[in-house]
DNA sequence: TCTTTGTTATATCATCACTATAACAGAAAG
DNA sequence: CTTTCTGTTATAGTGATGATATAACAAAGA
């Protein structure tokens, strides 16, 4: 479990944690049923406050990526909600692709970028 | 010039302004050389403070979407920097697509989403 | 001269991110 | 039963940020 935090980033620590763990799930570094470190453990590992980790876990629970078990702590449990995910992504991508398009990035180049990223999450030979 | 602000959003007003104007450029609502309203005008139109608009214009200048002309105010002037744009997009998209992938959204569905968004920015029949 | 432009300088207020302690109940292990 | 670990809750302080309110200035244009 390798989680690196950029303390110079303007992105909040707890958000970096959330993102990092979600990417970890996507890359199959974490699997459904796996338990994350306890809030105190992870806080000590990274060198931050317990509540910052707790907030990240709370967000992950809220967003449907983990369930909190009083005995085992935060356990990976991904809610599949394709429609919701597509709707959320659409708004954000609209703004991101407006930027790329203005800067001269073509539709084709974006498709290639999508493939490059999705290759990290699903083996090509599987489909 | 229609700019709507969601005052209930957790996204900062100046960031909403920046995003809205960039999308406006992408959809060719604004063209290179067009002048945006003065900071005071736009602030009055929206009903917000002058400095909030000023900050948005400052960010747009920093990111290379407008140039500030003391006579004409903020003028659309897009810096083309494909490589920089691709690099910036890659980081953000990595996290976004991690989310969609976890939620069961397939690579194909993402490609379709990309096409739907890019259709708003470039006419299909042009290429 | 009068108006409008961007620019700069203060000051205030609310919210947020993060930290620091502290205490509690539930569960597991000795 | 006691100890230890878990998440949970509460409270408080600090620093940064977003937004507001005034105010004043120089440059440009009518």
Write a structural description.
The structure is a homodimer of 127-residue chains. The first copy, chain A, is globular. In chain A, strands 1-2 form a two-stranded antiparallel sheet. In chain A, α2 (39-46) packs across α3. Chain A has helices at 13-26, 39-46, 50-62, 82-102, 107-121; strands at 66-69, 73-76. The first copy, chain A, has 127 residues and is mostly helical. The first copy, chain A, has 5 helices and 2 strands, in the order αααββαα. The first copy, chain A, folds into 2 domains: 13-76, Arc Repressor Mutant, subunit A; 82-121, no CATH class. The first copy, chain A, is 56% helix and 6% strand. Chains A and B meet through α1, α4 and α5 of A and α1, α4 and α5 of B.
Task: Give the SSE map.
2 copies of one chain form a homodimer.
Chain A: H1 13-26, H2 39-46, H3 50-62, E1 66-69, E2 73-76, H4 82-102, H5 107-121
Antiparallel strand pairs in A: 1-2
Helix pairs in contact in A: 1-3, 2-3
The first copy, chain A, binds a DNA duplex (30 and 30 nucleotides) through residues 12-14, 38-40, 48-52, 54-55, 57, 68-74.
């Amino acid at each position: 479990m390798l989680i690196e935090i950029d303390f110079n980033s303007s992105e909040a620590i707890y958000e970096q944690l959330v993102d990092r763990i979600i990417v970890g799930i996507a890359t199959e570094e974490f699997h459904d049923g796996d338990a994350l470190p306890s809030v105190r453990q992870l806080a000590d590992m990274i060198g931050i406050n317990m509540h910052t980790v707790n907030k990240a876990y709370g967000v992950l629970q809220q967003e449907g990526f983990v369930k909190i078990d009083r005995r085992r702590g935060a356990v990976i449990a991904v809610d599949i909600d394709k429609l919701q995910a597509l709707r959320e992504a659409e708004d954000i991508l609209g703004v991101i692709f407006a930027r790329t398009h203005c800067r001269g990035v073509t539709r084709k180049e974006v498709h290639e970028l999508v493939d490059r990223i999705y290759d990290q999450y699903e083996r090509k030979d599987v489909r």
